[in-house]
Amino acid sequence: MIYKSLSTTFLTLKIHKGLRTDKLPANVGLSALGLIRSISGHDVGTEELAHLEIVGSIVSQLTSGEGAKSFDRYGAGDYYVDHANAVYPQSAAGAPFTAAYLQSKGDPIADLVEDLAAEQKARATYDNILRLSDDPDVNSVIKFLRAREVVHFQRFGEAMLAKLRGFLRNLKGIWHLSLQFYFPKIKKS
Fold it and tell me: Are 121 and 80 in contact (CB under 8 A)?
């Protein structure tokens, strides 16, 4: 089950001897993304691409009409030389977006752990942006995107729960497995 409060989200999984396998989802054998679709009713991957588009729109609007001197003044002169005002997806350190960021092993549990980590890294990045930004319009969009990452983390957690139940349901003995994930409050410096 997933428990949510304002500052902390816990995902707790308890598996005991005598687990009723008839109460497990029928789709335990699905791939990680297929399982997410069946749990959440939508495609998380498509939404993640929309997040890139939203962030690109923010950057485009913030830099529209800015010249080379503005970019240079804010330490982004090198970016301007290569891309002018165009949106070029790259990290804050200047590493261009690459498919290497998308990890997949073909093993649902390994892929779900990777997905859980990716959602947390995105949430942490949005937290850092909120600490740096004083623009209320930008902040409202970033808060929305951050909230979506938390929801995705919860959906991936539900998928992990279903996969682990499927993995452990045939084992004999007493099993107790507990996973807890904490979301820290955002502190503005």
Answer: no
